[in-house]
């Protein structure tokens, strides 16, 4: 069946550091891929998406490229801020939305 | 800019009690969903409603029932609460159930079963 695997957290970084959160997927067909972010005490918000191979989703300085050959959709940001501290979820949708287990990011000043 | 509104935000129940979690969206979306979020397990789909008048089981439907009251509202009912149902529950909606449509989430209901 379809599944999403994310790196375990927490990921702890200093402000302005480079961020990578790994995400790989298993799916039949050509799913759309998403990154959602959950700030403390809130629901999930869509951060970015990509709907086909080689698409790059981007938003708020975050980027992720849909790599079909490696079945990956890694999230990157060049310079993180304290306000980026949150839990990040990778997800795919084919017949339904399937989430990874989430990766907590903690950014310190 | 309400989006998806869930009530209540917090609830404590005793084992065996029943309750209904309410969800409403004001974005004229066709599809609505209920998830539960547990530590280390991400979000798991309980039930969904692809359109008004239809409901379908998700990954973990046992112990729950749902009602799509109208296009705006989708409620989740626990008939006889169990401690295993202690979780954070999220309602979401999307314009359609199509593959590229993002889901919009409410802020969650934190439910504890004693």
Walk me through this protein's architecture:
The complex is a heterodimer of chains A (109) and B (114). Chain A has 109 residues and is mainly beta. In chain A, 0% of the residues lie in helices and 52% in strands. Chain A is built from no helices and twelve strands. In chain A, the strands form three sheets. In chain A, strands 2, 5, 6, 10, 11 and 12 form a six-stranded mixed sheet that branches. A four-stranded antiparallel sheet of chain A has the order 3-9-8-7, with no helix packed on it. The radius of gyration of chain A is 13 Å and the shape is globular. With 114 residues, chain B is mostly beta strands. Chain B has no helices and eleven strands. Chain B has strands spanning 4-7, 10-13, 19-25, 31-37, 43-49, 56-57, 64-68, 74-78, 87-94, 104-105, 109-113. In chain B, the strands form two sheets. In chain B, strands 2, 4, 5, 6, 9, 10 and 11 form a seven-stranded mixed sheet that branches. A four-stranded antiparallel sheet of chain B has the order 1-3-8-7, with no helix packed on it. In chain B, a hairpin with a 6-residue loop joins strand 5 (43-49) and strand 6 (56-57). Chain B starts with a strand and ends with a strand. Chain A binds chain B through residues 31-32, 34, 36, 41-46, 49, 51, 89, 93-94, 96-97, 99-102, and chain B through 4, 33, 40-45, 48, 58, 90, 92, 99-100, 102-108.
